[in-house]
Specification:
The protein is an alpha/beta fold. It is built from ten helices and nine strands. It has a single domain, classed as TIM Barrel. The strands form three sheets. The chain has a four-stranded parallel sheet. It has a three-stranded parallel sheet with strand order 6-7-8. The longest helix has 12 residues, at 189-200. The relative contact order is 0.19. The mean pLDDT is 96. Bound molecules: 3-phosphoglyceric acid (3PG).
Length: 213
């Protein structure tokens, strides 16, 4: 699957911090049951790569990716674990379109966007979206950079999601609000499925391209 296909799967990509690998599969199942299929497991915990492998092996409906990928080595390790895409908070030195799995690089400014476009990327994570300018920044970037599409992430919650998804240059948004820490700790998978279903039902302005699986 290309990054465009992955971003088209659902309007929201859950950003997951998995502390206990035993939570990985039930959490992924709770989210996919709600209709969110592209899942970003951040490489911030010792359990992350094992969690990715477990989800890749056991949750058919999930398209699992790695988040917080900050080096070429981490991109490779994520791919080896079974991740099908990688997300970075920034531009990784030396990393371009070529690589073991598609990469969604993070940008926060026009200059970073220009550097990413120069490397061939057209899809970007806007990060941290709510801090660097949010919806007004996305609008300001749309005119000089009509070829760029975004997955804004950082500080977005259920209340703010609709405004972001209403922007024509937003393919999807990322966020952790669909898998709250307390619900994961309580193994309250039903609540997570409800949050996921509400997120999956959010309308988006940008028509997703046909999905080729
Ligand atoms: C992150 O890197 O933690 C993501 O951007 C998620 O941000 P959020 O917790 O504000 O949704």
């Amino acid at each position: 699957m290309t990054l465009d296909d992955i971003m088209a799967l659902a309007p929201v990509v859950p950003v997951l911090i998995i502390e206990d690998v035993a939570d990985a599969v039930p959490l992924a199942r709770a989210l996919t049951r709600g209709g969110l299929r592209a899942l970003e497991v951040t490489l911030r915990t010792p359990a992350a790569l094992e969690a990715i492998a477990a989800i890749a092996g056991e949750v058919e409906d999930a398209v699992v990716g790695a988040g917080t990928v900050t080096s070429a080595t981490a991109r490779q390790a994520a791919a080896r674990a079974g991740a099908r895409f990688a997300v970075s908070p920034g531009l990784i030195p030396g990393e371009g379109l070529e690589g073991p799995i598609p990469l969604l690089p993070g940008v926060a400014t026009a200059t970073e966007l220009m550097a990413g476009l120069e490397r061939g990327f057209t899809a970007f994570k806007l990060f941290p979206a709510s801090v660097v300018g949010g919806v007004p920044l996305l609008r300001a970037l749309s005119s000089p950079f009509p070829q760029a599409v975004f997955c804004p992430t950082g500080g977005i919650d259920a209340a703010k999601a609709a405004d972001y998804l209403n922007e024509p240059n937003v393919a999807c948004i990322g966020g952790s609000w669909v898998a709250p820490k307390a619900a994961v700790a309580a193994r309250d998978w039903d609540t997570i499925t409800e949050l996921a279903a509400a997120a999956a039902a959010l309308p988006r302005r940008r028509a997703p391209p046909p999905i080729l699986t």
